[in-house]
Known about the structure:
There is one protein chain. The protein is mainly β. The chain folds into 2 domains: 20-131, no CATH class; 141-215. The chain has strands at 20-21, 40-51, 60-71, 76-86, 89-98, 103-107, 120-122, 128-131, 141-146, 149-154, 160-170, 176-189, 194-198, 206-215. The strands form 3 sheets. A 7-stranded mixed beta sheet has the order 1-2-3-6-12-11-14, with no helix packed on it. Strands 4, 5, 7 and 8 form a 4-stranded antiparallel beta sheet that branches. It has a 3-stranded antiparallel beta sheet with strand order 9-10-13, with no helix packed on it. Strand 9 (141-146) and strand 10 (149-154) form a beta hairpin.
Amino acid sequence: MGRKDRIRWLALTMAGLLFLSGCSGGEPEPTAQVGDLGGLVCMEYSRYTGSFPEDGSGRQVEDVAAILVRNSSDEFLDYATIEAQVGDQIGTFYVTGLPPGGTAWVLEKDALTLTPDETFRAEPCEDYFYRSDAVIRTDDLSVSAEGNVVTVTNASDKTLENVCIYYKTVHEDGNYFGGITYLLSFDTMGPGQTLTKQSSHYGASSRIVRYSYQESG
């Protein structure tokens, strides 16, 4: 990957975001160097109450530890595993599918709670991958949606194989919501062909973050 940047943890105050309650009582302990995770900045931490996205279940949770991360690199972040000391426990945060410049609220994977008086500190992190060949925009595919029904058209003059779109949910504050990235697969599409699929997770707040396909022949 060739980067030797560092994750920077910025102890910032968070308040007034929908479903995300500001942490009261203590700030995260600043960490100058927590691992060679080039370009990923962890900006804030908070607590979340609402529908839990990370395992796709949508179950209701309360006071779950949450972090706001930004991909400040010029490459697509395929995945990263971030661990943090949450009170006297270790929390794990999985972030996937984050475009260059993108920011996302990521919840602890097991819905670990964070109380107002607990501290928050990052642990060393080495598990990550940047995808230099990611297609984040294309003229070969046209995508539209009505509710949770997604329609994809092959706008090129070539047959496209293994057509997939990757999308995330956007929070009302403009950040992506959840480390999870959803996938819709459309397989092989001939020139001008249109295919439609339904997804329980797609909606008005969904945004495509990546396309993948191969040209046939």
